């Protein structure tokens, strides 16, 4: 994986990392320390929903310094649901999340799904269709 070095201004935001590992340092820091990425910035980089009813919630043990938990090409959330990119039905969004529901997910969200086993979720955390 290629590293990219950024110099951040106070209050600056990283809005897109393009799948590359980012080493970010505060302005004036000559690389002697690490900038701390927020959970939300990591989720936004992966284009996971940070708002809406079906937003991404990681396990409580996950920290932004770790890679997001994945299995079979999908992101695993706190409840064991797996989110994979799928074709979008939402105008202006290049893809939507196909959320395969875990046992816990089926109990909590299955009533919102046509088949009880998956949901289609837009980038802003809304169910796109049943």
UniProtKB/TrEMBL annotation:
Q: Which Pfam families match?
A: Ntox17
Novel toxin domain location is 43-129
Origin superkingdom:
Bacteria
The record's InterPro entries line, in alphabetical order, gives: Ntox17
Q: What is the protein name given in its UniProt record?
A: Novel toxin 17 domain-containing protein
What is the source species? Paenalkalicoccus suaedae
């Amino acid at each position: 994986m290629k590293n990219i070095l950024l110099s951040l201004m106070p209050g600056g935001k990283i809005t897109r990392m393009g799948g590359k590992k980012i080493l970010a340092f505060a302005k004036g820091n000559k690389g002697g320390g690490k900038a701390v990425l927020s959970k939300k910035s990591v989720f936004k980089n992966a284009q996971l929903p940070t708002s809406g009813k079906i937003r991404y919630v990681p396990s409580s043990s996950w920290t932004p310094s770790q890679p997001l938990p994945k299995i079979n090409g999908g992101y695993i959330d706190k409840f064991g649901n797996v989110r994979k990119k799928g074709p979008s039905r939402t105008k202006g969004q290049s893809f939507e999340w196909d959320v395969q529901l875990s046992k816990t997910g089926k109990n909590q969200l299955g009533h919102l799904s046509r088949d009880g086993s998956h949901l289609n979720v837009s980038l802003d955390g809304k169910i796109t269709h049943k």
